[in-house]
């Protein structure tokens, strides 16, 4: 089973073809994202195709998909229905999870959906065999998973890939893509399901301990970080009651 988590606001953000307002990381979310107006419903209807794309990718692997709508108190049932309708049409189970508002009890529908999916037989399969050359792997991932038209290897990356392909010790190394999570493409500003683009690979990194070869795509930072005032600073446990505080 594979769980795909989606939020109404996140999918609205992918509704660029319907005119969704920009919402850069680290900036306040525009107030329009919190309403279910006729305009923002168009954003959602357009943006939900991003979730549909991921459901199709999961099914290519022969895995049973479960879509978890991570619900917030300002969501509407109409908005949830848009996501449910689109994803169920692709053969995915869909459940609304209100754990943000009600804790564990709010996630029971989601838990039941996962349990039901686990009872169904799956036909898991890898996207490619280990013997497939590195650059062909990357091209297959780019086209089948991200929807790219092809791959452009920068000269340095191409030289490294050629060297790795000639060395048999790397045949058993898995391929882990290093790419922005903000878009199916390597450009974080391209939302929804972009068409007519190619994946740029600028480097390959080797992690011999884990046996990973990592194609580095686009201008992505390799160091994770937090904001200047991360939320975890306000999360604690009340020692008298045992309850977590600061989450809401």
From TrEMBL:
Any one GO BP annotation for this protein: one-carbon metabolic process
GO MF assignments: ATP binding; formate-tetrahydrofolate ligase activity
Lineage: Bacteria, Pseudomonadati, Thermodesulfobacteriota, Desulfobaccia, Desulfobaccales
Pfam families recorded: FTHFS (PF01268)
Stated name of the protein: Formate--tetrahydrofolate ligase
SUPFAM superfamilies: P-loop containing nucleoside triphosphate hydrolases (SSF52540)
Transmembrane annotation, as ranges: none
Domain of life: Bacteria
Keywords assigned by UniProt, alphabetized: ATP-binding, Ligase, Nucleotide-binding, One-carbon metabolism
